[in-house]
Amino acid sequence: MAKATVKKKDEVILALKAIAEEKGISEEMLFETLEDAMIAAYKKNYVNSGSQNVRVNIDRETGEIKVFSLRRIVEEVMDPQDEISLEEAKEIDPRYELLDVVENEVTPANFARVAAQSAKQIVTQRIKEAERSILYNQYHEKEFDVIMGTVQRKDKGNIYIDLGKTETVLTPQEQIPGENYQFNDKILLYIVEVKQNPKGPMISVSRTHPGLVKRLFEKEVPEIYEGIVEIKAISREAGSRTKIAVYSNDSEVEPMGACVGPRGTRVQNIVNELRNEKIDIIKWSKDPKEFIANALSPAKVLDVIIMNEGNACKVVVEDNQLSLAIGKEGQNVRLAAKLTGWKIDIKSKKQYEQELLEKAELEEDVIRTEEALEDAVAEEAETAAELIEDTDIQEEDSEA
């Protein structure tokens, strides 16, 4: 009978270890959880057994369960169930001192069987909580990174995606316009945010976020991953076009060439992943004029005039470059403005020259107006002086 009991205890230990390995949960955490659950079971089922201040210990090798009552050593005993005098404690062990805790085994008969039934629900709940916590930590570490998912189903515009250990939803706002998602498609997603939730981690993902482009370049371009080339800014209109500004910390490494790759293979892999979204790779510069001019690529810029008020500038291009600089429905200049952080007003050379001419004519008109006013004022002053002189003469004649 004893051998059967030991065997049963061994099975409990093996079961706990199997659960820990399967769920990725710490064995010690499971043992501590089971001990806490058995303390609760003892207090519930053995309420009349004396002290309710107890400790449960499960042997990590054999699975043997023991319950110990805990009594603190005090000078004057007020509650014999939870307290013990120093004199009585020293009879048990002379090394005891005041405020030490004296333990005494009080394991009831058949406690393991009774406690196991009561503890099952608590342990199950704690395992679920641990699983959710582990899952949250796993995905929280991947926040602002990319992850591969498998399309499961569509419902009211939402795409439900299996991430392996949990599921997430790609909302219509985070889907690339025109992109078609089929069952079992493998797609890369950018993790925007991971929140803790009673039912498990809430993972917000996107296919439209600029961060997706950034991570794709980091994976495709070793120079970016190694920190030789930096991504300084990104502006994106998902499904249509992206502008990315790059800079090299090594004078021997050309940043744009590194991103394009041999025969354009690196950037083409990213374009393919983004379903043929156009990507403009431009060189970043600390000089705002140069940066703004580069950002308007593929248009050629003649001049960039920084305005006095705010982050505003005027850009001049050849007449035949105006539509290219502005882009279809203003997309090129809009993305350039987002990329640089400047308000950009684009003028063709002819428009700018006409503007300068009108400004010069206006200034001339102002000067002529000012001169006319000065002449008028001088004339009025002269007339007034003559009137005063005539008045003085008349007064002199009158007195004579």
UniProtKB/TrEMBL annotation:
Pfam family, one: NusA_N
Keyword Transcription part of the UniProt annotation: yes
Record domain K Homology: where: 238-310, 313-389
CDD domains: KH-II_NusA_rpt1, KH-II_NusA_rpt2, S1_NusA
Keyword Cytoplasm appears in the UniProt entry: yes
Region feature Disordered, mapped onto this chain: 378-400
InterPro entries attached to this UniProt entry: KH_dom (IPR004087), KH_dom-like_a/b (IPR015946), KH_NusA_2nd (IPR058582), KH_sf_prok-type (IPR009019), NA-bd_OB-fold (IPR012340), NusA_N_sf (IPR036555), TF_NusA (IPR010213), TF_NusA_bacterial (IPR030842)
Sections of the chain in a coiled coil: none
GO CC, any one term: cytosol
Gene Ontology MF terms in the entry: DNA-binding transcription factor activity; RNA binding
Predominant location category: cytoplasm
GO biological process, one term: transcription antitermination
Keywords noted in UniProt: Cytoplasm, RNA-binding, Transcription, Transcription antitermination, Transcription regulation, Transcription termination
Subcellular location: Cytoplasm
Source organism superkingdom: Bacteria
Protein function: Participates in both transcription termination and antitermination.
NCBIfam families xref list: NusA
Family, per entry: Belongs to the NusA family.
Subunit structure: Monomer. Binds directly to the core enzyme of the DNA-dependent RNA polymerase and to nascent RNA.
Name the record gives this protein: Transcription termination/antitermination protein NusA
Organism, as annotated: Proteiniclasticum ruminis
Encoding gene, per UniProt annotation: nusA
